Amino acid sequence: LEEIPPRAGDDTGNILKQGYLEKRNREHGFFGSEWQKRWCVLNRRTFYYYANERSKQPKGNFSIEHYSAQLACHLRKDSRKSCCFELICPGRRTYEFTAPSPAEAKDWVDQIQFLLKGEFDLSSLTIPCDDEDEDETYNDVDSSDSVNTTSHNTTLNQEESNVEMEEDIYEVLPGKQPKPK
């Protein structure tokens, strides 16, 4: 497994989803709680979990590559069972979480599945557009120029109608007479 450098819990760079989840301990002892509240942060490739949202060092992290995410009602027997989901990867540790609500659990699963599908370029986070719009061309510069030109021309035309046009395009300065041709 590659070592992933820790990131601060409040670092907002490339964060796609974050919030409190209950994480099931891999090894829970007699005195320890089976589920512990953790501040969880999902970025483009890594899932981090912290003691709380102010923690600078994660309690743990893992690359989501090759994992799958799914709702998992079987993880709990209590009223929160519809809020559970898990991240599974063959040959690797399974991570189990409980969200504050069933809708939040579904949103976490959807976000992770979206990343795993690779439907966009992970390096730039750009979502590809449909091919249907390729025929349409939009040129904001031309359209705004034509609007400005039209209004400018209208203004000039109004001024021209109020001013008598002279044949000579040169201005005669006071004290200087033009040379005869």
Give a structural overview.
With 181 residues, the protein is an alpha+beta fold. It has a domain at 15-124: PH-domain like (Roll), CATH 2.30.29.30. The chain is 22% helix and 23% strand. It is built from two helices and seven strands. Strands 4-3-2-1-7-6-5 form a seven-stranded antiparallel β-sheet, covered by helices on one side. A hairpin with a 2-residue loop joins strand 2 and strand 3. It is rod-shaped, with a radius of gyration of 32 Å. The termini are far apart. Residues 1-12, 119-124 and 131-166 have low confidence and may be disordered. Residues 144-155 have a biased composition (Low complexity).
Runs in which pLDDT lies below 50 for 5 or more consecutive residues are 1-12, 119-124, 131-166
How far apart, in Å, are the first and last alpha carbons? 91 Å
| Biggest beta sheet attributes | 7 strands, antiparallel
Please identify the top-level CATH class of the domain at 15-124.
Mainly Beta
Please state the CA-atom Rg, rounded to the nearest Å: 32 Å
Put simply, the count of helices is 2
Q: Name the shape in a single word.
A: rod-shaped
- The strand order across the widest sheet is 4-3-2-1-7-6-5
The chain-level mean pLDDT equals 75
- Give the class from helix and strand content and strand pairing: alpha+beta
Q: Give a count of the beta strands, DSSP E runs of length 2 or more.
A: 7
Reading the helices and strands in chain order gives EEEEEEEHH
Query: What's the CATH architecture of the domain at 15-124?
Result: Roll
User: What fraction strand?
Assistant: 15-25%
The H-level CATH homologous superfamily of the domain at 15-124, spelled out, is: Pleckstrin-homology domain (PH domain)/Phosphotyrosine-binding domain (PTB)
According to CATH, what is the topology of the domain at 15-124?
A: PH-domain like
**Fraction of helical residues:** 10-25%
Pfam family, one: PH
Biased composition (Acidic residues): 133-143
Protein name: SKAP1 protein
Keywords: Cell membrane, Cytoplasm, Membrane, Nucleus, Phosphoprotein
